[in-house]
Specification:
438 residues, alpha/beta, TIM Barrel, eight-stranded mixed beta sheet, four-stranded parallel beta sheet, 31% helix, globular
Length: 438
């Protein structure tokens, strides 16, 4: 039995459905939840157990960022593979801390620069650095002239062709011990050689990737913007679909048939970043329109509406880690899910908790506050049901709990100094008191 903690006085969102318990309690035993529900039903506890009354604050499951790029450095989206392994690693350590501090206790990677994810995951699991529970990916896997084929080696992608060469590439990623194989089934509006409606892979190539990955206990995530790309991904057995902007009725039917095994991440932070911040990366508004991004946003709104009606599981995450959608702004997705996609705040929270947790951890240990699951919680000084935007205000996140460990102020880049008053009169070897610099 580990250290125990009881949280009382909570406005409690369990993440099982959209309901909220007005007087809730959570009992944590080590890194596991022992009880979560109405305070009146918790039963008696040893009075020596530490108890925190949160005074009516909102307590919810830790969220899952399910299109994560922790090795992206908040740089230009046109230079993703440029950072050196060393600089990408340093940036990823910082981004991991920021993601956890933003209330995201789990992350599902959609691609890593220079294989940084693997080392990052091991450091987080060892407790060396703070960060979310990470399902790690390797480099993006693509074929010649796919969206991630930059014409050089770079740190972003691994390029090869044909079913057996692609199987070999998957085996190479297995050797590195990745959890997720990320592939680019179709293209992107910014690409001159891989448009969004053009399939880069043949069916047998995608099938080979999925078969090899599943044989070796890995999952497959895809960049699929078009209806054809989504259908190819689902029929091949892919596990996670990113984007799914342009769906048709047949794509919805295919997704519906696979709804028990597949997750879709429709986040549009990339598109909205281009629309709102194009000038910062040297683009004009006309260029963004000509490349189809206004149309893509409108199509996404329609496609998400279709998926809502079909009860397709959706997860949050939208390519954060670039200058126009930087790390730390992940909860912007929930605002867009509500204001643009028409979800209720409760439904958006379920995408970020229950459904995202099921995607990030297939073993079912995260995403809801239930006995036996990991003690991953967020305590919010505000009510996301009343105002979903409160989750973007890091100062309103009173505490993040991951595995029973309480974290605060992880997002702030604090420098430390030893104040003269703290060491005055102390002899050599005396303990120094470190406080944040003012």
């Amino acid at each position: 039995m580990g250290k125990q903690l009881i949280i009382t006085g909570a406005k409690l969102f369990l993440g099982i459905d959209e309901s909220v318990i007005e007087d809730g309690a959570v009992w944590i035993d080590g890194d596991i939840i022992k009880y979560a529900g109405p305070a009146a039903a918790m039963g008696d506890a040893d009075p020596s157990i530490e108890t925190i009354d949160v005074g009516g604050q909102f307590v919810m499951p830790g969220m899952s960022e399910c299109h994560a790029h922790l090795s992206f450095t908040d740089g230009s989206p046109f230079e993703l593979g440029s950072p050196t392994p060393e600089s990408a690693t340093i940036s990823a350590v910082r981004s991991s801390r920021i993601m956890l501090g933003s209330g995201f206790t789990s992350a599902l990677s959609f691609g890593s620069v220079h294989k940084v994810d693997i080392t990052l995951r091991e450091a987080i699991n060892a407790g060396t650095i703070p960060g979310p529970r990470l399902a790690a990916a390797g480099k993006d896997l693509g074929v010649t002239a796919s969206n991630v084929d930059s014409g050089g080696t770079g740190g972003l992608s691994q390029i090869t062709d044909g079913p057996w060469n692609l199987r070999q590439a998957v085996r190479q990623q297995r050797y590195l011990n990745v959890d997720i194989v990320k592939i680019f089934i179709d293209g992107e509006g910014v690409s001159n050689h891989a448009p969004r409606d053009e399939l880069a892979f043949h069916d047998d190539e995608v099938a080979a990737i999925v078969d090899e990955a599943h044989r070796r206990n890995m999952k497959v995530a895809t960049h699929s913007r078009s209806a054809a790309g989504v259908k190819q991904a689902v029929r091949a057995g892919c596990d996670y679909i990113g984007h799914a902007n342009f769906l048709d009725d047949e794509a919805i039917d295919v997704l519906s048939e696979a709804r028990d095994r597949i997750f879709v991440g429709p986040g549009i932070a990339w598109e909205m970043g281009l629309v709102n911040h194009h000038a910062s990366i040297g683009l004009t508004r006309e260029w963004v329109t000509d490349r189809g991004y206004d149309e893509q946003i409108e199509a996404s709104i329609k496609s998400v509406g279709m998926m809502l009606k079909a009860d397709i599981r959706m997860m949050v995450g939208g390519d954060y880690g670039i200058s126009i959608a930087p790390h730390g702004t992940y909860a912007k997705d929930l605002e867009m899910f509500v204001d643009m996609f028409g979800m209720t705040p409760g439904k958006a929270l379920l995408c970020a908790t229950r459904d995202g947790g099921a995607a990030a951890d297939p073993k079912g240990r995260v995403g809801t506050l239930e006995a036996g699951k990991f003690a991953d919680l967020v305590i919010v000084n505000g009510d996301p049901i009343a105002d979903i935007k409160v989750l973007q205000d890091h100062s309103k996140l009173s505490a993040i709990i991951k595995g029973g460990v309480i974290y605060r102020d992880l997002v702030n880049d604090m420098t430390f100094e030893i104040k003269a008053a703290d060491i005055a009169g102390q002899g050599a070897g005396a303990d120094k008191v470190l406080e944040p610099a003012q």
